[in-house]
Amino acid sequence: MEYLIKRILAVIPVMAVVAVVVFMLIHLSPGDPAALIAGDYATVDDIARLHAALGLNEPLWKQFMLWVGRLAQGDLGTSIFTQVPVTHLLAQRVGPTLSIAILTTVLSVVVAVPLGVLAAHLAGSWVDRLVMIFAVLAFSVPVFLVGYLFIYGFAVKLQWFPAQGYVSLSQGVGPWLSSLVLPCVNLALVYIALLTRMTRATVLEVLHEDYIRTARAKGLGVLPVLRHALLNAAIPIATTVGVGIALMIGGVVVTETVFAIPGVGRLVIDAVLHHDYPVIQAVLLVSAGTYVLINLLIDLSYGLFDPRIRY
Amino acid sequence: MKKHILASLAVVLMAGNCFAASAQAETTTIRMVPYADLKVLDPSFTTAYITRNFGYMVYDTLFAMDAQGKPQPEMVDSYKKSDDDKEWTFTLRADLKFSDGSPVRAADCVASLKRWMARDNIGHAMTTAGGEWSVVDDNTFKLTLAKPFGLVLDGLGKVSSYPAFIMPERLAGTPATKPLTEVVGSGPYLFKRDEWVPGNKVVFVRNPGYVPRKEAASGLAGDKASHVDRFEWVILPDSNSSVAALKSNEIDMIEQVPADFISSLRTDKDIRIGVISRQQAYMVMNQAFPPFNNAKARLAVAHAIDQNDVTAAMGYPDDLRMTYCATFFICGSANETDAGAAPFAKPDIDLAKKLLAESGYKGEKIVVLLPTSPSYLNAATLVSIQAMQKIGLNVEAQSMDFATLSSRRTKKTPLDQDGWSAYVTSAAEFNVDSPINGTYMGASCGNSLPGWPCDEKLDELRAKWIGATTPEDRKKWLDQVQEQAYKTIPYLPIGQFSLVYATRKDLKNTDKLWGLPNVWVLDK
C-alpha cells in the first residue's frame, strides 16, 4: 500500500513536467490558429481581431496560468475551432480507441503467445523458421500498406467488411465487430510479430533452466512443462503487452487514418495540424497520465506472475 | 469444430452488416465526403468554404444566384426600388420560420445584414455608399443609400465569402468578434448537433419547417427542399480511403477528388465524375517590400510564368485545366474579359528580364513560401519558382505546412525578420469572379490583406464599376479595371483548373450541382 501511494504521488511531478513541456512546445512552434480560423481570404486586421477574441494576445505565462487554473478544476478547456469542450471531444473518441486497443490486444495475445511458445518448443525446426519469417514480415511491412491491401481485398472486392468508419457498440455487436475487424487485424499484425518474438525468446531461455530439466526428468508432459515455462517467462511478455496497450490508447494515427476510425490519434493529429492548443494539451496530458497509470498496473501485475515479488 | 466457429463468426458479422443496412434503409440518406472538416459553425467568422457550405445547409438568404449567375429572390417575396436607386424596399415571403420555431421577421433580416456588412467586401462598399437598413413592419424592411449602388441584389445573393445568411435577431446581435455556436436558421436542413463528431461526421436532417419557393431549383436559387431525409458529411482525411469507400458503396459522393484519382475513377462504370467548381491559382507578391513593391518587378513575374506549365504540374487531366486564361475574373464567368491581357498571352522571358532590371532589382534574395500540402499548390509553387529563377530572381523556397504559411504570410516585416516575398494559393470561382468578389482585386488601398496591394487608380475604377447601374456601364468599367490590373498586378492569376466531384451512378440530379455542394438538388 505504501508503495502504491508513493507511486501515485510520483505521478504528480511527472505530470507537471509533461504539462509545462507540452504547453511550451505547442505555443512556441510556428503557426497561428487565428490565421487558420479566419481563412484564406482574411485580412491581417481580421486575424488580429480573432487573436483578441480568442485570448491569444495574452502573455504566455498568463495563458499557462489560466490553463493550469482550469485544469485544477477539472476543466480541460474548449477547442479554439469548434468551441466544443475538450472533455466532450475526448469522450467521443475514447470509445473507438479503447475498442481498437482491447480487441487488438486480445487478438495479439491469443495468437502471439501460443505461436511464440510453439516456436520456442520447436526451436530450430521449420515451424520455428516459418513463425519467425512471419514475424519479420509482419513487423517490416508498413501498417498503411497492409491496411490499403486489406481495404482493396476485403472491402472493395469481396465486400465482407466496411472500408472505413466505426460503428459504436450501442448499434449492435455485429456492426461494431464488423467495423473493427480490418483495423484490428491490420494493427495486430505488428503486435503479434513483436509478442511472438518476445515470447519465443523468453520461453526458450526458461526452457534451458535447471528446474525445467528437472520437471522433464520427473516425467512431466510437454504441455504442463510449457505452461510452467510460460508462467516464468510472463513478466517481459506482460510488460510488452502493457506498453502496447498504452501506446494504442494514445492513438494509432496511421490505422485510424487509413480506416477512418474517429479515435484519439486522429483527434490529436488534427489538433496539431490546426494548432488547436487546448485539444493538443488535453490529449497529450491524458495520454501521458494513461501511460503512467498503465505502467503502474504492469508493475503491480508482476506479483501475480511471480509470488516472490512483493512491494 | 474450428470451421463451425469461423462460420458462426462470419454469420454474426455479416448479419451485423445486414442489420445496419436495413436500419439505414428506413430513411433515405446521402453520405458525402466533404473537401475538409467542419471546424467553425459561424459563417461570418471565417472565409473557409466548408463553413460557407455548412451555412447553405442550415441558413437561407434573401436573394440567391441562379445557375446563370443572376440574383433571384429567395426569402424575399417582392421588392421595389425608388427611381433614383437610393431606396430599396423588401417584403418577406409568408410563413418563413427559423428552426427554433420563431417566425422570420424583418428585424431578423436587418440585424443579420448589419452583421454581414461589418464583414463582407460588398457590405463594406454598401456602407461606403451610405447604406442603412431599417425595419418597416414585421415583413418589410428598407435599404436607404446616399448614392446609387449597383450591387444591392448581387450583395444580398453573394455566394462567397461572406454570404448574407439570415439568422434570428438575438443571434445576429452577437458581436462579429465572437463566434456563434448556436445554429438557428431557416434553410433546407437542420444541423444535428447531438450527432456531430468533429473530425468524423456532420449530420443534417430535412428541415420540416422549411418553406420552399415555387420556382424549380437553379444554382442556389429556387426550391431548396431536400429530396432525402438525411445528409451526412463523412470526414475521411485519407484520399485512398474515401475512394475505396465510394467504390464499395459506403458513401455516395466525394466533393473534391484529388487529381491523382480522377483518371482511375473515370474508368469505373459505377462512378460518375463532374465539375463542381472552377478554380483560379494565383500568386500573391508582397508589395510592402522590395522587389515587389515595384510594379515592374511584378510585371516581370507575370511575363515569366506560363499558365500551361502551372496547371499541367498540378496533375489535372487536360480537359480539366486551361492552358491559358486571359481574365482575372474566371474564364467562362459572366465577367470574363480579355481587356489588357494581350501582352501576357505567351511568356516573354527577355521582356521579363528587362522589366526586372528596370525595377532596380540587383539579385537580392527573395523568399517564396512553399506549402507542403495540398499537393496541387505545392506543384504550382514549384513551377512558379522555376519561372522566377529563369528571369534571374534569387529565390529561396521555404517549405512549410499550410497552417504555418497562413500565419507567416500575415507578417509585414523585412525578410531578415521572418518576412516573405511571395506565395501561391487558389480560390474558387465565386471568390474571384468580379472586381469586388475577388479578395485581392476588391481590396482598396489601406487594406490589411497579406501582400498589402495598393493602387489608387484601381480603387477609382472599381468604385465606378460598383456605382454602374446599367450592364453597358458595368462592362465598360470592368474592362478598365482589368486593364489597370494588368498594369500594376495587384495579384497574379497563374492558371485555371476545375475541381471535380465523384458520385455513385445511382445518385440523381448531379447535373444540377453548381459551383458548391448545393446538395438539396440530389436524390437517391
Task: Give an overview in words.
The complex is a heterodimer of chains A (311) and B (524). Chain A is mostly helical. Helix content of chain A is 77%, strand content 0%. Chain A is built from 14 helices and no strands. Chain A is globular. Chain B is α+β, with helices and mostly antiparallel strands and 524 residues long. Chain B contains 15 helices and 18 strands. A ten-stranded mixed beta sheet of chain B has the order 10-11-12-1-13-18-14-17-15-16, sandwiched between helices. A four-stranded antiparallel beta sheet of chain B has the order 5-6-8-7, with helices on one face. In chain B, a hairpin with a 5-residue loop joins strand 5 and strand 6. In chain B, helix 10 (307-313) packs antiparallel against helix 12. The radius of gyration of chain B is 25 Å and the shape is globular. Chain B starts with a helix and ends in a 20-residue tail after the last strand. The chains are: A mainly alpha (311), B alpha+beta (524). The interface between A and B is large, with 60 and 60 residues.
